[in-house]
């Protein structure tokens, strides 16, 4: 996710400036990227965030909403398949929100977190469409506007090792007014 946000930061700054001039929403294509995770277990009721927020330059014009859409292919070695998960985002430091420091990650109670996706079930090798920022496209925009964001996930069923999520054909749909 960090790669996605770094790649999109410059594009979003330009998109925000262009959209402000044209008063039209923009769709910005993003580079393909992958996320690799050593192990994914059942964290029902908990959201796992990376230890550090993704950091990037703030746009010249505030972004109102962002949705990220594209294709995701999941590949993994199943311990218990399939994997079902929901993505979350936050702009405030998990350390100040009562989350647990798990060394390389933060573990937060899902009841206090903001979902940015529906629940997705991934079979090994399966490709499917995904949308991040639906619901709550404003939380992604807040992160872009602040220059940092944590994006995490809750695995509600399944467990796996050697997990890779390949994100392709991703676009950011940006609204600035």
UniProtKB/TrEMBL annotation:
PROSITE patterns: PROKAR_LIPOPROTEIN. It comes from the Bacteria. Residues 1-19 form the signal peptide. Keywords: Signal. This is Lipoprotein.
């Amino acid at each position: 996710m960090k790669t996605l946000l770094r790649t999109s930061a410059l594009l979003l700054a330009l998109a925000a400036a262009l959209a402000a001039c044209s008063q039209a929403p923009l769709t910005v294509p993003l580079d393909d990227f992958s996320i690799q995770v050593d192990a994914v277990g059942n964290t029902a009721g908990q959201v796992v965030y990376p230890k550090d927020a993704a950091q990037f330059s703030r746009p010249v014009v505030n972004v109102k909403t962002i949705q990220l859409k594209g294709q995701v292919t999941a590949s993994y070695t199943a311990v218990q398949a399939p994997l079902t998960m929901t993505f979350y985002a936050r702009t405030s430091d998990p350390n100040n929100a009562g989350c647990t420091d798990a060394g390389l990650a933060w573990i937060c109670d899902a009841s206090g977190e903001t979902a940015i996706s529906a629940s997705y079930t991934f079979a090994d090798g399966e490709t499917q469409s995904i949308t991040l920022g639906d619901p709550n496209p404003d939380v992604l925009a807040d992160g872009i506007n602040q220059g940092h964001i944590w994006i995490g996930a809750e695995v509600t069923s399944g467990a796996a090792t050697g997990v890779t999520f390949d994100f392709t054909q991703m676009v950011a749909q940006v609204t600035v007014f």
